[in-house]
Write a structure and sequence with these properties.
Structural class: mainly alpha
Oligomer: single chain
Order of helices and strands: HHHH
Distance between the termini: 48 Å
Length: about 80
Amino acid sequence: MPRSTWYHNINALKRVDRHARLKDKIREIYHYHNGRYGYCRITLSLRKQGVGKHELSNFMESAQKLALDKLSNDSC
């Protein structure tokens, strides 16, 4: 194994997940509403809690796709 790969893997374990708080909030909202909240409602709920628009969009870009399906209504 190349030295650079070894150190890359070691350092990857030490990195802090910068979206951990946001992931926990999303899970909390989703489970609190028994899985009835989709993308739009969760986003609105997070915005009401003070999570910024850019923080949400950056998280969504990095996550690519949540396990929750977006509602078919595109009005959000």
